[in-house]
Structure formats: structure tokens, C-alpha cells
Amino acid sequence: MSESNTCSVLVHAPAPPGGRSAAGGNQVDWATIDAGPAAIAVVHRDIKPADILLTGPASAPVAKLADFGLAKAFDRAGLSGHTMTGSSAGTMAFMARPQLTDYKFARPEVDVWAIAATLYYMLTGQTPRQFPRGSDPIAVVLREDAIPIRSRNPEIPQRLAAIIDEALIDRPNIRIVSANELPQALLNAL
After folding, report:
1. What is the four-CA torsion angle of 47, 20, 28, 103, rounded to 10 degrees?
2. From the centroid of its chain, how far is CA 159?
3. What are 116-162's pLDDT values in tens digits?
4. Which residues are CB-neighbours of 111 under 8 A, at least 6 positions away?
5. DSSP string covering 70-123
6. Domain range for residue 27?
């Protein structure tokens, strides 16, 4: 998949006239994204900027989620026998701690966390956790909390930052668990 038509490209693209919008990176309206995989009882388990395709005109792109290669029906978790206990897959930089510790039984809230991590990346150009060169990415996910977004980009409005930071709390549990709750909270913050 080419990055030229994904959200990844917006992070490194020149800012549009008037600058980047804290509500939507360059152009994508994150607050109106639909319920996504959870609406069809599926947990994606690998949401990241490269998996969010942009379609439609450049003036009003529509974000669509792609690459369901690791997806599973969460209501049947553990019943297929395909995912071995103790296994893990996905992109560590956009992975919530509960997905790593219980991959076989991952719930939709790991996708909500990954959407918040993707938004964080779109607004800062960095992932929520720091992965120092030579570090064990599994250890980073298990031990490190997300860095507050305003530490990386102080121009983000405080109310919006608070929602993103809350959505990235995953210890002991993920705080924002519904794919409908996150966009509503984002809209309320704007």
C-alpha cells in the first residue's frame, strides 16, 4: 500500500494555508469518524496512519480504514483456535498495553486507543510513547505511559489535549472504550 493516499502523508506534507488544524491534522475531520470496526463486531488490532486511506477530493477527504489482516470477531475471541495464547501482532508504536498483554482476547477499546495514538501522531509527528534506538519495543509498551501531547506540541488546545491524553491512558485499563465516545469527546473539546 502506498503512503501517498494515507494519513501518514499528511504528517510530512507542508501545512495548508492557515496552518494545521488541531481538530484534524491537515484536512481529515477526526471528530466525525464513524464507529469503525466495532460497528461490525470486529477488532482491527493494527490501526495506524498507514492504514487510514484518504479518498475523495483533496478539499474534503474521507478517511477509510484498511488492512484487516489481523482483525477478528471480538465476540468470539478465543474460540477459533487460530490465535495462540501468548502471541502478539500489530505495530508496537500504535499498540495499547492490554493488546500486548492479552492479544488473543483483545477488545474494541484497543482500536480506540490506536485511533487516539494515530491522531496524536498526526498532530505531533511522533508516536505517543518514546521508542529509543536499541530499546525493546515490547518493554516500552509494557512500562511506558504515553507522553502528554502538549509536551510534544504546546499549540494544541488544552481541552483537546486533555481528551487525547485521556484516550491514551491504558493502565490499568483503557479509559475511553467506545468508538462513539472518542469522536463525541473530541467534538465537545472543539
Report:
1. 10
2. 19
3. 999 999 999 999 999 999 999 999 999 999 999 999 999 999 999 99
4. 36, 37, 38, 43, 44, 45, 47, 179
5. T-EEGGGTTSSS-SPTT---S-GGG--HHHHHTGGG--THHHHHHHHHHHHHHH
6. 3-189
134-171 exposure pattern, b = at least 16 Cβ within 10 A, e = fewer = eeeeeebbeeeebbebbebeeebeeebbbbbbebbbbe
Query: Rounded distance, CA 44 to CA 176, Å?
Result: 17
pTM for this prediction? 0.72
* Length in residues, the chain: 190
Model pLDDT, residue 61: 82
Q: pLDDT: is 139 or 25 the higher one?
A: 139
- Residue 153: CATH number of its domain: 1.10.510.10
Whether 45 and 90 have beta carbons less than 8 Å apart is answered as: yes
Question: Which pLDDT score is estimated for 6?
Answer: 64
**CA-based R_g, the chain, Å:** 16
Calpha distance 142→145 (Å, rounded): 8
Cell of 7: 494519513
In this predicted model, what pLDDT tens digit does every residue of 48-102 receive, in sequence order?
Answer: 888 888 888 888 888 887 766 566 665 554 544 444 444 455 688 998 898 888 7
Task: Indicate the number of domains in the chain.
Answer: 1
